[in-house]
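Duplicate of earlier report; Cytosine permease input re-posted below.
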Amino acid sequence: MNNNNKDQSLTQIETHGVEQIPDNERTAGPVDLFRMIFGGANTFATAVLGSFPVLFGLSFQAGVWAIVSGVLLGSLILAPMGLFGPLNGTNNAVSSGAHFGVHGRIVGSFLSLLTAIAFFSLSVWSSGDALIGGAKRLIGLPETDLTLGLAYGLFAILVLTVCIYGFRFLLWVNKVAVWSASLLFLLGIFAFAGPFDSHYAGTVSLGQPGFWAAFIGAALVAMSNPISFGAFLGDWARYIPRETSRQRIMAAVVLSQIATFIPFLFGLTTATIVAIQAPDYIAANNYVGGLLAVSPSWFFLPVCLIAVIGGMSTGTTSLYGTGLDMSSVFPRLLSRVKATLLIGVLSIAFIFIGRFAANLVQSVSTFAVLIITCTTPWMVIMIIGLVVRRGFYCPDDLQVFTRGEQGGRYWFSHGWNWRGLGAWIPSAAVGLCFVNLPGQFVGPLGELAGGIDISLLVTLGLASVMYLMLLSLFPEPALVYGPKDPRSKGAHAPAEAALRQAA
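Output:
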C-alpha cells in the first residue's frame, strides 16, 4: 500500500489502509477525536434514541435518569478503546489481533462491518424521512416512493464521496457538524419551550409493574450508542501521536459522550410533547412524524438541516470505518477506496430494499441491539488484555495478516488465540439468549429477569470472568509482554529475528 500520504489537502484522496500510520503523519489530537465521536453521535438518529423512554412509557424525569445512567456507563466502557489507535497506529480490529490472534481479529472486522451497515442505514432512513417530511410541510413536496428514493440515494452518494476522500475531509465535515447541529438542537429550546411539561408522567411510574423493565430497557438503548463506537475508535485515534497522554484521550472519549446529552434530551423532550399533542404518533412508534406534526412552522428548516448535517456525520463515520476494515480483511483484493465503494453500494442497496420492499426499520433496530450484545464482550476482552499487557504492543507484528505473512508474537495457534475467542464466543452466545425486546426479539432466557433485558450485564460479566480464568489457566507466551515486564525475561532478544516468515 502507498504510505506516501503527505498531502494534507482536504481534497487529496487518502491512500492509507490499516497499515501503521507513520509518526510524521500523526497530526490529530484528543480534540479532533472528540469532534469525530461527537459529530458521529450528534445526529437525528440519536434524538430518535432519546425518544425511547417515552415510547417505553416512562415519565420525563425517569427518562432523564435512564439516559444519563446509560450514556455514562457506556462511555466508561468505551473510553479505553480510544487508546489502541495511538498505541498501534491502526484500527481497533487489527489491534484486536493481539488478543484474538492475527486471524482471530477478523471477528472485530466483521462486527464493525455489521454495526456500520446497521447504523448507516438507520441514519439515512431517519434523516431522509425528516428531510422529505419537512419539505412537504414547507413547500408541499409530495412524500412518495420517488421523492424518498431520491433523498436516500443522493444522501447516501454524498456520504460515500466524503468517505472516499478519507480522514482529513471527514474531520472537516465533523468540525462543521459538531457546532452547527448543536446550535440547531439548542434552537429547539425556543421552538418547544412553550408546550414542554417537565412533569410529564408517562404511563408507567415507579412502583408499578413494568417500571424497572422499561427503565432498564431505556438505559440499555442509551448505552448502546457509546458502545456502538467501540469498533471504530481506532479508525480516527490512529492519527494521534502515541506519546499523547492516555488520560487526555480517554477524557475526550468520555466528554464526547456526555455531549450527546444534547441530541438525547432533545429527543426525550420533544417526545413528551408529541405524546401529549399527537399521541397517535407515539402509539405508532413514529417519533419523526410526530415531531414534524408538532413543530412550529419556523422550525421546519432547522429540522431539515439537523437531518442533513447529522445524517452526514453519522453516515461518514460509519462507512469510513467499514471501508477500512474490509480493506484489511481482503488486503490483496481491496484498497480502502475500493472497499468503501463496494460497501457503500451494498449499504445503499440494503437501504432501498429495507425501505421499499421489506419495511425493515424495526428489524434493523433489533439487528443493531444484537450486534451490540456481541460487540460488548469483544470490547471487554480487549480492555482487560490492555491492562494485563500493561499497554505493550508490537505494531509491526499486528500487520502479519495484512502482509500475507505468518508468525510473530500474535500468531498463537495458527493465527488464533483461543483464550480471547474462548471467552468471546460463549459470552456473546449467552448474552443473545438474555435479549428481551418485546414484539421484536426475545431470547430463550429473556424472561428470566421478569421481562427486564439484562443481556449486556450478563455478557459483560461472563466475558470478564471467562477471559481472566483462561489467561490464568493457559498463560500466554512470554513474548507478548514488554521487554521490561518480568513475565518476558529471556524471551526477547534471540527470538526476535525468527518471529515471522513469508506465507
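Residues 23-360 form a domain with the Hydantoin permease fold (CATH 1.10.4160.10).

Merging into the original ticket.
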